[in-house]
Amino acid sequence: MALPVVLLASPRSFCAGVERAIDIVDRLLDQRGGPIHVRKQIVHNTHVVVGLEARGAVFVDELDEVPDGATVVFSAHGVSPAVREEAARRGLEVVDATCPLVTKVHAEAKRYATRGDTVVLIGHDGHEEVEGTLGEAPGQTVLVESVADVEALEVPDPTRVSYLTQTTLAVDETAEVLAALRAKFPALRGPSSADICYATTNRQDAVREVAGEADLVLVVGSANSSNSVRLVELARRMGTPAHLIDDVSEIRPEWLDGVRVVGVSAGASAPPQLVDEVLEALSPWDVQVRETARETIQFTLPAAVRRR
Ligand code: 2E4
Ligand code: SF4
Q1: 17 Cα–ligand 2 center, Å
Q2: Is the CB of 231 under 6 A from ligand 2?
Q3: Smallest Cα–Cα separation from 283: which of 8, 1, 6?
Q4: pLDDT at 192
Q5: In the predicted model, is pLDDT for residue 242 greater than 70?
Q6: Mean of the per-residue pLDDT values for the chain?
Q7: Where does ligand 1 bind, in terms of residues with CB under 6 Å?
Q8: What is the share, in percent, of the chain residues with pLDDT greater than 90?
Q9: Are 77 and 101 in contact, with CB atoms under 8 Å apart?
């Protein structure tokens, strides 16, 4: 009988924003040694966090845990202006690992609020990126998570409404929310291209491709990683059983019972090595790559860490 097949989704795993964020902490540790304080998880992946902790990174929830005058790294998900102000007030040296594509959304939030619009942010309540973006114009921004939220929404002037999104949303679900917004506010304005980033879009396209052919989909990523969870949900919406795993140790043998084709992917914050370990565990399965896009984008590093 032919070997069972692994369909390896591509692109998967680290995006340019995550590479940059991890590189920033790595370089600070190389240059200065530990401890280097990082506000929140640099990216939402337990293996990345544990690895950097072992090298001297100290992850804190809030700035009051950072000693006066120390250096603090802001995570890839971004921070609100209030956090920046607090860091300045405390005399902290900030090295900002916010992904440039998140920074772009903050700039849009400021622009839309300045022209007097109500800013509707499509995103997930409580997520760090959403907290940061909401903080740009807190009095003028409202969060919606669903079509039902749009239906219940009331704004001071329906002719002056703009929208923004979190960068890691499901493209198809967001289109539905956006359609509801446009129907309710025909004068709705927003970014020229959606804020859902290239990496999120590409990983979803690749998972859609493999989930259509697979009996099971495994996505490597941590439970608090929004973009990774979206990949699992997408496969399930297509009717394919899917699981989020932090690493190979979480694969339950019974998941593979009767499975001839397994799709494998990884969220943007999941290290590629974890995927390699999954493939080793499945060996000698026949691994076939399904590539739906090629990524070449890279972001420049902040000046503080540019030279090693
Ligand atoms: C910053 C923005 O937002 P999510 O929970 O998916 O973050 P994660 O750290 O898993 O992925 C990287 C990232 C960082 C995505 N968007
Ligand atoms: Fe940036 Fe997109 Fe990666 Fe988030 S998923 S860090 S927005 S490139």
Answers
A1: 5
A2: no
A3: 6
A4: 84
A5: yes
A6: 97
A7: 17-18, 43-44, 76-77, 99, 102, 129, 167-168, 225-228, 267-269
A8: 97
A9: no
CA–centroid distance, residue 292 to ligand 1 (Å): 21
* Start-end of CATH 3.40.1010.20 domains in the chain: 5-14+197-291, 101-184
To the nearest 10°, report the CA torsion of 27, 32, 35, 37.
-60
Parallel, antiparallel or unpaired: strands 261-266 and 216-220? parallel
Active site residue 129: yes
- Is residue 268 in contact with ligand 2, taking CB distance under 6 Å? yes
CATH label, 16-99+300-305, candidates 3.40.50.11270, 3.40.50.20, 3.40.30.10, 3.20.20.80:
3.40.50.11270
Q: Is the CB–ligand 2 distance for residue 15 below 6 Å?
A: yes
5-14+197-291 to CATH, choices 3.40.910.10, 3.40.1010.20, 3.40.190.10, 3.40.50.360: 3.40.1010.20
Q: Which atom of ligand 2 is nearest to the CA of 102?
A: 7
Calpha distance 117→111 (Å, rounded): 9
Q: SS in 3 state form for 119-188?
A: EEEECCCCCHHHHHHHCCCCCCEEEECCHHHHHHCCCCCCCCEEEEECCCCCHHHHHHHHHHHHHHCCCC
For residue range 218-239, list pLDDT tens digits in order.
999 999 999 999 999 999 999 9
Hey, which of 167, 269, 295, 300 would you mutate to test ligand 2's pocket, going by the most ligand atoms within 8 Å of its Cβ? 167
Q: Which of 129, 131, 136, 209 is catalytic?
A: 129
Could you identify the atom of ligand 2 that is nearest to the CA of residue 197? Answer: 2
What's the CATH number for 101-184? 3.40.1010.20
What's the whole-number mean pLDDT along residues 287-296? Answer: 98
Cβ-based neighbour number of residue 115 at 10 Å: 10
Q: Is the pLDDT of residue 78 over 70?
A: yes
pTM recorded for the entire structure? 0.98
